[in-house]
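Sharing a chain and its predicted structure for anyone who wants a worked example. Both blocks are below, sequence first, tokens second.
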Amino acid sequence: MPRLLGLLLVTLAASGVSAQHVHDAPPADSVSTYLATGLRVDEAAPPPGSALGRAGLRYGDGGYVSVVYGRPFVRGRQVLGGLVGYGMVWAAGAHRATELWTTVPLVIGGTRVEPGAYSLFATPRPDRWTLHVNRRLGMHLADEYDPADDLVTVDVSPEALDTPVEGLTWAFATDGSALTLAWDRVRVSLPLARADR
């Protein structure tokens, strides 16, 4: 039976925005996510070895944005230029394309993104990453990726990290200004803002 993904949020009273990040969700046969928009997705839980990750951002008026992803771990492997090839479109997580859900309109890379559900992909390069917000949902890794379905692509500069991040982590900036991806010794940030503010 599907399980409902709950959003566990830490409230930032001063800003009216809250951010949350949950690691290592319990395994389930399937996970259902319901949004205020009435959208629903049934998602198979990642196989053992990669946990389910979630990150969320809630606004003071009840609107929110969330990311659901398979969370691979470094486990002594070469990540960039190895496990994740440079110049190759990647699902930005494990086992399924990473999913972005929003109940509010956003601006990402100068493009308005309407409330709904999208897939996130990344094309890493040593000096520049391209982050893709794609209209199709429920894709297996990048096998089914089609650039014609990209709503927006944004080029960003990777930031080298002194301390490695063992488990791939998506997180929202506490002020809601960015969605970040960190893994191994690199972090990239996707600038975002509410379109209705």
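Comments welcome. Residues 3-194 form one domain.
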